[in-house]
Amino acid sequence: MGANKRYPSGPQPAPPVQADTLKQVEPEYEEFTARPFSLTAEELGRLPAIVVTEPILVLAWVRSPAMSAHVQGRALAWTQRAVYVEWEHRGLHRAWVWASAVERGGLAV
Length: 109
Fold this sequence. Notes:
The chain is mainly beta and 109 residues long. It has one helix spanning 41-44; strands spanning 13-18, 48-63, 68-78, 82-88, 92-98, 102-104. It has a domain at 29-104. Strands 1, 2, 3, 4, 5 and 6 form a 6-stranded antiparallel sheet that branches. The longest helix has 4 residues, at 41-44. 23% of the residues are buried.
């Protein structure tokens, strides 16, 4: 497998892990709040994930049942088709999103 074209430079990655072992993380809510969608194991395709030792700042589109949000976050891992993103909004969230929904740096508008 060649160099990663999406994130070609930056911190050295940790050894690969199976993508479906990195699970969605949601804060404990005291009232009902729609939780964002994370890609399923089937969508991740049993691909190995590259885990970074230092998170990379990204902008990501994250979907929930009622809406989508453009969030400023950190890429923690990725595969050929998906990125494991962490962001803060009333607590810490982590979810897998399609790679095409993610771009490096910048501010969410």
